[in-house]
Amino acid sequence: MASYKALTEIVGHEQVVTDPIVLERYSCDHSFCPQKKPSCAVFPHDAEQVQKIVAWARHTKTPLVPVSSGSPHVRGDTVPSQDGAVMVDLSKMNRIIMIDRRNRVVIVEPGVTFDLLQTELAKQGLRLPMPLLPRRSKSVLASVLEREPILNPRYAWSLTEPLRCLETVLGTGDVFRTGELAGASISTTTGVDAKLLPLEKVVEKRRATQDTALYQYGPGQFNYYKLLSGAQGTMGIVTWASLRCEVLPTVRRFFLVPSERLESLIPFAYRLLRLRFYDELFFLNRSHMATLLGKDSQDIIRIRHDLPAWILVVGIAGRAILPDEKVAFLEKDISAFAEQYGVRLESSISGVTAEHVGEIVLNPSPDPYWKLRTKGGCQDIFFLSTLNRAPGFVTTMHAAAAAFGYPSSDIGIYLQPTHMGTSCHIEFALPFHPEDEQNTERMKKLFPAASERLMQQGAFFSRPYGIWAPLEFRRNSEHTAVLQKLKTLFDPQGILNPGKLCFG
Predict the structure, then answer these.
(1) Domain for residue 118, yes or no?
(2) Cβ distance 168 to 228 under 8 Å?
(3) Separation between Cα atoms, residue 41 and residue 171, nearest integer Å
(4) Is 274 left (phi over 0), alpha (psi -120 to 50) or beta?
(5) pTM exceeds 0.90, yes or no
């Protein structure tokens, strides 16, 4: 209990939770990650408290598991891997620190959700690029740090878009800032007494010097922010970050491009990607589109029955300058391209309107989380490849499902071109009934078997959660060795989310 007393002295008695019912929620999620209950959960309110918690953990050699999103969790990355772990729940660090309309940048803490942020940005005529239907309780920073693909590949300059500068507490206990805001963070004191400026002073100095907070490179010639991207909290605990925003469109239109064959849509999509004649652009198969639209399992089955096998969703937008004219010429040109490639733009398909689809995908998922509506549970298999290889991966996934008696018609498929179309996020959603023991056991066998088949075919699991980590890291021993060396520099005692990635 002495160790808990030390934590209460840092954050206050009410912010240290030992209630077994509460801790049970942190011990498991919707993944098949082994269940393990933490010893307690602590709720810091600022970066200084996070720094003190890390210092305490170093002294007591206690594992820390950072978490900022609310339930449901689905990937196992926030479930403790070691006994005695302390959950560092950052959900109460939920300030929107600054919105800069002129430079289209926002600075947020990890507890800020998409629901909250998009509402505040809209008041300034801005919006943040979003992944496909994040849950309402999803932390914006968690999504960005984990490289969830955004719907608009036109503005996806890199796989970490829209992440810019950030502040993190390293496993050494040091506070580290990256990019342009690192240069605005040093106090006037030099030598051993030099300290980072408080965040409010950083923002004040940024405004005075008109720094944009948009340049993420550095300090120096090294892009430190990449070490924290996709790291699952193993390299540091991020306490705030700046993000690039989009100007909110004044005119917007969506179109649906149906086809019974995925191969018929890909050349057309590549043409749009090359010319950048779009805002949103992504593929859904009929099962995933029905899940996106349906309210419950019966509604989903009804909608799915009438949909085409594949739908390419295309969104176009006009902003401040001649918005109506821009949307009109984009629609005309895209329609001409569609005709050249033997496909067609539709405003509605089988009673499903494009505008309704657009309204849904531009907002977070309502409760319950959309992927859990069909059967109550869902396992996702996602990786990076290129769009032209997607049909081959679809064939492999269907074959794996058939081998385990899983109905292919239930598989939801989402293809998201990213990094300006140079690569593609390929995702298979496998809904199942978690309360059905036989159904769950089948999924526990299908999930790893399908993952291995896809990896052998060339799938790159760039975000290796759970069982994907050993599969991916043993393919490249040199890369793994470098990561482990960096881990000893940034977290020498291995207290940050041990057991994840390649960090035993």
Answers:
(1) yes
(2) yes
(3) 18
(4) alpha
(5) yes
